[in-house]
Design a protein that fits this description.
There is one protein chain. Helices cover 47% and strands 16% of the residues. By secondary structure, it is α/β, with parallel strands linked by helices. It has a single domain (5-186), classed as Nucleotidyltransferase, domain 5 (2-Layer Sandwich). Strands 3-2-1-4-5 form a 5-stranded mixed β-sheet. α4 (125-133) crosses α5 (140-156). It is globular.
Length: 187
């Protein structure tokens, strides 16, 4: 598969972070806003899916932040977020003509890849992305998606820069989990 781009997604019921990195095109960064007071869940899923599919290519590789089960104070509805996640995964799998499922990246993995520690506070996402990449993101969701996309870029394409010890450790743990998929992708 000739990879055209790497997409990072931080799925959310209110503002999904979306970043597409490609060698030959401009980077696309966006936060797909959903008004939770308007429309049904399915209408919001449809809107988010439509925007993502329209901004991607069938030869893209997709990386999605895995579920956050430890969300404090019930700030997220896990069943509804799970539905969104499932709808998006199926749409992206279909987008690649059912060749490659999206890769799931844990919160701790992308945070450690970004700054060397997995316990980064959400309020620091934008600052850490700016410090590492000199990129200003509008929202924390977008910053998370950028970090996920960069991790994915280094996993499936040749890195632009020398990696740190902690970045290599994260990539190695993901390579173990997805060995068969990465081997198939390299063909």
């Amino acid at each position: 598969m000739a990879i055209k781009g790497v997409v990072g997604l931080d799925l959310s019921l209110t503002g999904t972070g979306f970043v597409r990195l490609a060698q030959s095109e401009k980077t696309i960064r966006d936060t797909i806003k959903s008004d939770v007071k308007v429309g049904t869940h399915l209408a919001r899923y449809r809107k988010t899916t439509k925007v993502i599919v329209a901004a991607t290519d069938p030869d893209d590789v997709f990386f999605i932040e895995e579920y956050a089960y430890g969300v404090p104070g019930g700030k997220s509805s896990l069943p509804v977020l799970g539905e969104l996640n499932g709808v998006i995964k199926m749409a992206l799998w279909a987008r690649t003509k059912f060749i490659l499922e999206p890769f799931l990246i844990t919160i701790g993995q992308w945070k450690k890849f970004l700054c060397g520690r997995g316990n980064l506070n959400k309020d620091a996402f934008k600052l850490e992305v700016f410090k590492k990449f000199n990129v200003e993101c509008d929202t924390n969701d977008e910053a998370a998606a950028y970090a996920i996309a960069d991790l994915g870029w280094h996993l499936v394409l040749k890195p632009k820069r020398k990696l740190t010890k902690y970045e290599n450790q994260v990539l190695e743990s993901i390579r173990k989990r997805y060995a068969a998929e990465l081997q198939a992708l390299a063909k």
